[in-house]
Please model this.
Amino acid sequence: MSSPTFITLGPSGTCHEAALRRYLEFQGLQDVRIVLVEDLLAAIDQVREKPDTFLVQCSAHLHVHLVTERYFREVFVVDTFIYPTKELALLIRTDVDHPSSLGIVSATRGYTDLSRWPEIIDEPSKPVVARHLLAGYYDAGLTHLHYAREHPEVLRVEEVYGAVDTTWVVYGQRKRFRGAVIGTRIPWMFTGEPEPQEAFALG
Model:
């Protein structure tokens, strides 16, 4: 069997890439090929056409319903998992006194009040937001906090959202659902009982 291919949102440095690499570690998979793309909707074609090819997408992504529906008879949700985003923040250029333009990824529009921004520019990923913010394409950007730490002379922190727990969807050719719920048994979460110690050991 050839090494499996896992596709997720690029470029390098996205929350998608970080979540995928942690998922592969969790699954004990080392001999894999990782492909980073800017268009996950187009990438689902590769999952449909190429054996042993999978796609990982954040459930908050703008096109998650379209990716799920495009080849619903040929490409299936085969797994989901919980993993946080990288630390997120609203960053503003230090050379701008009255910022008016904002670079943002559509999936992160809920973190801040957008009414204060006369101009909003949608970008495909948070590393792209950071790259264009550093280049001066706009005054502010909602992106990863570490860019402000790496470029304090250029960027200042306006709001910090931190790492936010979210869900990730894994797509593949092999249908996994067989009529029974596929999930993690956590009755203590809903009954108010203490969390079992083994839950930490298996995390």
